[in-house]
Write a structure and sequence with these properties.
The complex is a heterotrimer of chains A (620), B (288) and C (321). With 288 residues, chain B is mainly alpha-helical. Chain B has eleven helices and no strands. Chain B is elongated. By secondary structure, chain C is mainly α. The chains are: A alpha/beta (620), B mainly alpha (288), C mainly alpha (321). Chains B and C meet through helix 5, helix 6, helix 9 and helix 11 of B and helix 1, helix 5, helix 6, helix 10 and helix 11 of C.
Chain lengths: 620, 288, 321
Amino acid sequence: MPLLEARNLSVAFGPGAVPILRNVSFSLEEGRVLGVVGESGAGKSMIARTIAHMLPPRFELAGGEIEFRGRSLTRLPERERRALLGKDIAFVPQEPLTGLNPVLTIGRQFGEHLARLSVPRAARERLAMLMLESVHLRDPQALLRRYPHQLSGGMCQRVLIAMAFAGDPGLVVADEPTTALDVTIQARIMRIIAEMKQRHRTALVLITHDLRLAAHTCDEIMVLYAGCVVEHGPAKQVFGEPRHPYTRCLALANPSLSGERRELVALSDHMPGLTELAGIAGCRFASRCPIRGESCEAIEPQLALQSPGRRAACHHLDRVAGIVAHAASALAPAPAPAAAPVLRVEGLTKRFSEGRSIFSAASRDVLAVDDVSFELRANEFVGIVGESGSGKSTLARLLMGLEPPTEGRILIDGRPLDPADAGSHRLRIAALQMVFQDPQSALNPRRRVASIVTQAMEAGSRRATWTQRLERAHRLLGDIGMPEDSALRYPAQLSGGQRQRVNIARALCAVPRVLVADEIVSGLDVSVRAQLLNLLLRLKGERDIALLFISHDLTVVRYLCERVLVMYRGGIVEAGATRDIFERPRHEYTRRLLAAVPPDDLNSRWAGLEVPADEIEESA
Amino acid sequence: MIALASLDWRAAARSPRVLIGAVLALAVVGCALLAPWIAPHDPEDQNLVASLLPPFWVEGADPAYLLGTDGLGRCVLSRLLYGARVAVYVAVTASIGAMLIGGTLAHLAGYFGGRVDWLIGRAVDVWMSFPPVVLSLILMVALGVGVNNVVLAIVLVDWTRFCRVLRSEVVVVMHRDYIAAARLVGFSHLQVIVRELLPATAPLLVTLLSLEMGIAVVVEAILSFVGMSVEANVPAWGVMIADARTTMYQTAWNIVLPILAVFVTVLGFNLLGDGLRRTLDPRLARGA
Amino acid sequence: MLLAVSVLLFVVLRLIPVDPLALSVSPNATVEEIEKIRHEMGFDRPIVAQYWLWLKGALRFDFGRSIYHRESVASLIARTLPASIELAALAILVATVLGLAGGLTLFHVRGTRKEPVLDVASIAILSLPEFLWGLFFILLFGVHWALLPFTGRLSPEYSMPAARTGFLLLDTLLAGRPDMFADAMLHMILPALALGVGFSPAIMRVLRSSLQDVYAEDYIRQARLRGIGEVQILLRHAAKNAILPALTLMGVQFGFLFGGTLLIELIYSYPGMGNMMVEAVRNADLPVIQAVGLVYCIAVLSINGLVDAAYSMLNPKLRPR
């Protein structure tokens, strides 16, 4: 009997019973790993919620069945179902820092959990320490007395993993367990999960948006799109030879770390949301599908067995192989960089004083940016790579004048900027513009799109008329690939990707020479990210604009930039041409960063999974 | 003004609390404005023969005095209506005054941060060390009686409430990137405050204004109860309550009616404020 | 901080146009006699000197003499302050209990049809200030159904016990008179209830919104996913987190509550510091006003200080490493 089995599981939303999950079926055997892959809104988290039977308000089970060891999870009485949670079925959350109660010590929370698992009081502390050791946390005894805010994200996640496996569960459901963590930590966490699964012989459902990650860590992959299963099969096969057009596009929309540079396949638009789902009759992917045929929009394809263990739902499976990524020559060629640098940074340093605590005499200073120097020429795309705490965001703020530097200079066209001088401020914002990371917070919700993108025309004493601004807005929106009618919309009516485009358009309005982009594609879906990256490349070809692209994602930086600066703990540890850095990294940290990314070639082992046991402990 | 126009008034108008609150408040304002025309008697007109008459629904009432008379034979209804004038005048002027001072300081403190914030914060702390009742009493001792002094006293006491609450809100909005983006696009400090910050804090401002009106009515009632508010021959609800205490055993209506007047007025402003907070605050109504 | 407060007080009071001596000297006093008293009291000195004089005295707990009572202000305060503290303490207890119970109830009925009803009821309670609640209770429980006493502290047949601690409730117990204790308690029920009811809705509402915020947090969902029951979640996980933001507001409210004792004492003829303050205000008795105003501020600052201390104790992020 399979451990977990779903048959035609369907979940619907609201009074109109909009189907969020449609006919999802899968079966998971003991000790196997199932990867549920999809972009945001595909419904993958809904599967986890259905297993826990904790659907959000107004979401209801609309049909089908899901069984755990033969017992129906949905029809079980409340008390029995609750008895399973934590014991036989455990969950690992997405946000580890907020997953633990901030006012209780680790020990108290672990103890409470062990009490629930009927561990006798005398044995609880020892068992807790044992579990913490098994997730490679040092000094477990001291850790039990600490509070969550004293731990780093990675450490919290390990605690949560230890708690999940403490009861020897038959099934662990991990919903995007590494998304909120730094790249180098991600690999370690995946390794720990794999180890625990091995040791406790647990089955694992791994929910993720990262197809490559799933390919390296799972036995089977199930791809979801808009609530339907579009493909299901052995992990390496689904990644290596995708049968469904969406899976193939997803795989081709991911920039790679090695090999030839190919243009990303960017699907237009975005996945249909709640409001749009109700109106779709046929295949839900049809509107974006590059091999769309006549029957696709009318008749929904069924998930059919293609070969043993492989299923895909598409009417035109034979055409899928025709979806290819064009070679690098199709990418806009980089115009030769000019001689004198537009932007020059010399010895930039930023120190934050944490203030004195009553217990120590010296004040604790945080060196956020440590003696950073580099140059940027016109039309150059330079990437700044680093993890959290590397100082890259502070660097961006220093460049834009949002913080004054403690030491060092910033020069534009050879002229140094004075943080206190208004004339310098004008010079700076004429040359540099910033695109912020979070489109939700970067756009004023009370302004229309046209008003936002032409905000530069509102500044100062000379105010432009509304007609002038509307005209300019239309042109800008056209440049970034958005329809004209979006000019009069409000940000709340746009999708995440569209908001980010508006963000870019606003920065372009004043015709700057340099764009500083701080993690602008981080929160976006793979296909939307590909759209934006291609947009940036197109802009490079069309205008004279340089880009300082800050990101933690090496693959994206490799795709976009010709030069890379690697930052670690405030300083630049390595700098050079992209190809050199990625093929022949010299600094230890750069090598660690590269090792942390799951490789494209499935036959090569993921180096990040094999970091030795005496690894460098993360500091809180 | 653009800030006010950008608020979702239509959503607000659909809320039952806003409607009921507005109706109550407007009724009281109406009484206040129309008092000289609808009051049946002069509120200071004494008629010792007809003293302590009960309201019309009790036996022994005189139809000339609909709600009865007080210990000196003055018409309760007329005194209530004229008392409304004092209450409404104080409510409107004091709350706008407190909002202007407290709001301006709050935005300056939150926007500029650093020393400005520290200074204003310390001033608010010192001010708020006084229980408001005590402070307003002391201020009235210093300023002397009179309705405008009452308004001044309330403004001087309550600006701190506006300042503290609004400052927290300003700090939250300041963390949004669109504020920084406006500066980067070339807006001056004033432009950022007026065009980006104010529209975001406007919902809270309007809510606080409405709640403050209720508070101002209460403070005025307290002051006139103690005898430190209006001049001797001006009718006010607190004065009516104080006078009626001595005749409480004979007729409870003299004290109940002005209490009810205060209650209804404050309830109206509170419901209005609560309803506005729920409908205008985009966080509660889903948005940014 | 206290210094700043006292400066403020002083400055405000010196703005009075009323001649503080006018009330306390007999109409027949000669100009010289008036001048003599003025010089004695120091009212003829420049304002900074006056403040300095006052401050020196204040540090020795000598607040001067009341113009009206002709008694030292310090002894007046010593007599009346304990009574106000007892009243405030009892009222704080009432407000907290009602506030917690109400807040939990409001939270419990969220999403149901009862919620708007209870919510509006809490707004209605909020709309009646505490002094009107005081009058209302007198009308209802004192006059209409003569159930409870509403004047003074003890019934006329009792006389005050030996003042060993200054706190009447304690003194009656120490004097071995449980019947007097009961009588004193009875007298305090209505005023404390009025004060407590007046301030409880604010606590209810902040507790409700605080609980709502906490229940939306990740760690509550994680606890549920570990199979922990709802009661456990409320008591062990949610309560401590929800109390924290409520505490700050409660501190502010309790400060206001202490100020509210002023009116309640007036209405209930309760011989506390507030009653004395009202009298002093009506008579422009400056030394009393100054000193009592300062005491009120000290009370508010102490309450805030206690609440801050409780907050840092409960919130592990604020405790030193």
